Amino acid sequence: MKQTLLVQRSTYTRGALTALCCGAAWLATACTVVTNDTGADASGTAGSSATGGGAGSSTGGSTGTAGTAVAVDGSSGNVMSEAGPGCPGVAPTDPMNCGTCGNICGDVTLAVSGSAVEIAIDATSVYWTDDSSSGGTVKKVPLGGGTVTTLASGQNAPAGIAVDATSVYWTTRGDTLGGNGTVMKVPLAGGAPVALAGGQSVPRYIAVDATSVYWTTYNGGTVMKEPLAGGAPTTLASGQASPLNIAVDAASVFFVNYVGGAVMKVPLAGGTATTLVAAGASGIAIDATSVYWTSPGDGKVMKEPLAGGAPTTLASGGTPTGIVVDATSAYWTGGSGDGTIKKVPLAGGTATTLATGAYGATSIAVDATSVYWQTSDVVRLGICPAGACK
Length: 390
Fold this sequence. Notes:
Layout: E1 4-9, H1 15-22, E2 32-35, E3 80-83, E4 107-111, E5 116-121, E6 125-132, E7 135-142, E8 149-155, E9 158-163, E10 167-172, E11 181-187, E12 194-200, E13 203-208, E14 212-217, E15 222-227, E16 234-237, E17 243-248, E18 252-257, E19 263-267, E20 274-277, E21 284-286, E22 290-295, E23 300-305, E24 312-316, E25 323-325, E26 329-333, E27 341-345, E28 352-355, E29 364-366, E30 370-375, E31 379-383
Parallel strand pairs: 1-31
Antiparallel strand pairs: 1-30, 2-3, 4-31, 5-6, 6-7, 7-8, 9-10, 10-11, 11-12, 13-14, 14-15, 15-16, 17-18, 18-19, 19-20, 21-22, 22-23, 23-24, 25-26, 26-27, 27-28, 29-30
């Protein structure tokens, strides 16, 4: 089944600044419906086009009549965006212009993926692991859309993914009952993948800091780390109940045990694992003060001080799954339950629905302008009208 990487972008792209300098001239400009063909694989092979254009196409498309709304056809990869009055000198086909100067664009497909598992972002690209039946791969695409680059292929069930300033890191689960999982890395620009660790028992989620890469092993029940340059893996925690999601700060590694849903933490140097949350957690995220988690069983988004303490309910309702935070808000996916992408202030308050129909989304990321997630169809970018998203 195909998987979808969705991107919900707010108007804090170039819009606010552009609108200020556009003057009154753009107000009289007619609306134009734009097709953005994006996401063809770098190889240009048949069927790799993200938008139903010619194989290997990456940009272009056609314009329609003024003011006509056009639907997104995720099944065929056809991507349309509805643009309103434009700004002189700013192409309406530029996805970064959507949501500004009156432009309201629909979903833009970044890339068609066979089976997207997890995503990660940096300042330029979205990266994801793909566990399709045709073979596991690691790919990237520019944040604004464009050519999809395959960074690694022939991977045995790739899963978690993380990036730093130089490299992409990921796990391969290997055989479910075996011990042939690996931890891999490749330069951001591509190159020969390097195995940092082998013989892992179904490694799943992964995180990095300035010195080390960290991961969980689902079957092994361990939390591991290794220097970024390679070396001997260190076991930070063992005897865990199928640990999955993981996050790292300057002092500790935080993780969630799939069996029971406990939120745990262990020092970066290893030691005794501490229980922060007894049960029910799924996704996890951290900032400088708190650990945040989703609880799909009771439909809650929660937080608690990093040192432990009384938990706070930030939002209730739905089936929250993946979670990420920025300086102001927590964002989460509704998984296969309600198919929504939502956010709520870090202090709690009214939750805002950013998107619907995102069924199957479990991995989510955020930057200064956008929210990114994967679902069960294609990889796409949605751009919100003014004030509607972040």
